[in-house]
Structure formats: structure tokens, C-alpha cells
């Protein structure tokens, strides 16, 4: 089953050049669509991700999915394998590449038979401002085992999340959903290990609603690394 899923996704990506979420609920039809636009910011680079998920108890009854891009390009997917859900995504290494592949404008998603859902959404690139982390600095060493992370205040966002994981093996050690007006977070004692390199990310998200809670959601995530001291 996994093999067929991969083939299905790769076929879709090949057709439209695609390398979470604007959430659209077709609750009455048992099908939902999520569209996410992500902006990842590092000290020396940035990248972008466009992500679509279609799922729900009735999705496996849909025979086709038709996606129409703002350019008018139309792509039709056949759900001949009767999948319960699909997830399709593409990464871009620059904003120029991103806006060329996924321009602002109207995206249309239609299931067939149409009774299982059809939707149009206006996608924008109004990403939240990039979080400016003031402590620790990217690449800092000898950071305490219970530091207070600080950043500049952010405006016009809907949610804020901080995550920390080890660089060596990618294990998540902390993830906290913060107040959107927060400007600091103290890492509890006992979570960080001495002489260990960590990746910290601060994620700001915005959404712009419309009728039936439609509207695109975008997030900007700032990443830094730091290394703890011996104590």
C-alpha cells in the first residue's frame, strides 16, 4: 500500500512541478483540505514549503481530484487505488522560485463526484515577520542548562511556538505553545544536557479567515543552533 501511495504522490508532483495549513472543512461531505505555506529562516539562507493534505472518511469514495492553479493550469489525479488521504508538498530554495511555482491567486480543488467537495481559496504570500531571537545568538556556546530564550515582540500573528531538539539525532526535548505576545521563555531545568548542541526554532503563524473559516494560513520559522556548557 505504501508503494502505491508513493507512486501516486510522485505522479502528482511530476505533473505540476511540486518538489499544513489553510484548513477547508467539507464537514457535510466528510472531506477536508489543508494547505500550508511555510517560510524557514536560517542565519545564512531561507527556504519555502507548499503543502496540501486531502483527507476524511469519504475521501476514498472520490474517483478524481482536480487542482486548478492561478495560471489556469489544471491537474487531475485519479484515486484508482482508493486512498483514504493524500499529502503533497514541494520545497523551494528561494522566494523567486516559490512565487514562480506557487503564485498568489485563486486555487481551486474539486473532487469527483462533486458531492464530495469543491472549494476555491485565494492564496497570498503575506508571511508573518521573521522572529528576531536576541538570546542566545546563533552558534552560541557555553549556554546554561536552563537558559531564558528571548526575542523581539511580534505583531499581527495568531500563534507562537518554540521548539528545541538535539542536532545530533533530532530528538525533540521541548515544544511549547506560547502566548502570541510573549517575548521570552525559560527552559526548565533538567531538559538540556551538558556539552550538547541544540537546534531552537521559533514559529510565528497567521491566518486570514473568510466565509466558513476559509482563508490561507502562513507561518515563518526562525532557526538557530546553540551548545550548552558543562554546567
Structural notes for this entry:
This protein is mainly beta. 10% of the residues lie in helices and 48% in strands. It contains 2 helices and 16 strands. The strands form 3 sheets. Strands 1, 2, 3, 6, 10, 12, 13, 15 and 16 form a 9-stranded mixed sheet that branches. A hairpin with a 5-residue loop joins strand 4 and strand 5. The longest helix is centred in the N-terminal third of the chain and has 15 residues, at 2-16. It is elongated and about 60 Å long. The termini are far apart. Residues 1-27 and 208-215 have low confidence and may be disordered.
Q: What is the residue-averaged pLDDT?
A: 82
Number of DSSP strand runs: 16
* Structural class determined from secondary elements: mainly beta
Weakly predicted, low-confidence segments: 1-27, 208-215
Largest sheet: 9 strands, mixed
Q: Provide the gyration radius in Å.
A: 20 Å
Quaternary arrangement of the chains shown? Answer: single chain
Between the first and last Cα atoms, what is the distance in angstroms? 49 Å
Shape: elongated
- Element-by-element helix/strand order: HEEEEEEHEEEEEEEEEE
In helices, the fraction of residues equals under 10%
Question: Given the structure, what is the number of helices?
Answer: 2
DSSP strand (E) fraction? over 45%
Amino acid at each position: 500500500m505504501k508503494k502505491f501511495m508513493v507512486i501516486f504522490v510522485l505522479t502528482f508532483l511530476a505533473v505540476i512541478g511540486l518538489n499544513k495549513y489553510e484548513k477547508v472543512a467539507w464537514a457535510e461531505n466528510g472531506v477536508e483540505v489543508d494547505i500550508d505555506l511555510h517560510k524557514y529562516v536560517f542565519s545564512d539562507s531561507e527556504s519555502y514549503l507548499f503543502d496540501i493534505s486531502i483527507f476524511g472518511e469519504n475521501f476514498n469514495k472520490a474517483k478524481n481530484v482536480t487542482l486548478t492553479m492561478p495560471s489556469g493550469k489544471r491537474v487531475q489525479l485519479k484515486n484508482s487505488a482508493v486512498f483514504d488521504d493524500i499529502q503533497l508538498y514541494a520545497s523551494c530554495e528561494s522566494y523567486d522560485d516559490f512565487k514562480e511555482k506557487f503564485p498568489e491567486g485563486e486555487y481551486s480543488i474539486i473532487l469527483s463526484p462533486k458531492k464530495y467537495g469543491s472549494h476555491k481559496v485565494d492564496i497570498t504570500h503575506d508571511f508573518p515577520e521573521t522572529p528576531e531571537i536576541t538570546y542566545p545568538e546563533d552558534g552560541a556556546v557555553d549556554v546554561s542548562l536552563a537558559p531564558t530564550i528571548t526575542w523581539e515582540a511580534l505583531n499581527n500573528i495568531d500563534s507562537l511556538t518554540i521548539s528545541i531538539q538535539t542536532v545530533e539525532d533530532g530528538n525533540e526535548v521541548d515544544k511549547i505553545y506560547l502566548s502570541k505576545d510573549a517575548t521570552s521563555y525559560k527552559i526548565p531545568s533538567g531538559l538540556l544536557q551538558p556539552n550538547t548542541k541544540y537546534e531552537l526554532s521559533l514559529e510565528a503563524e497567521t491566518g486570514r479567515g473568510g466565509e466558513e473559516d476559509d482563508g490561507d494560513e502562513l507561518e515563518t520559522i526562525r532557526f538557530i543552533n546553540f551548545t550548552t556548557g558543562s554546567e
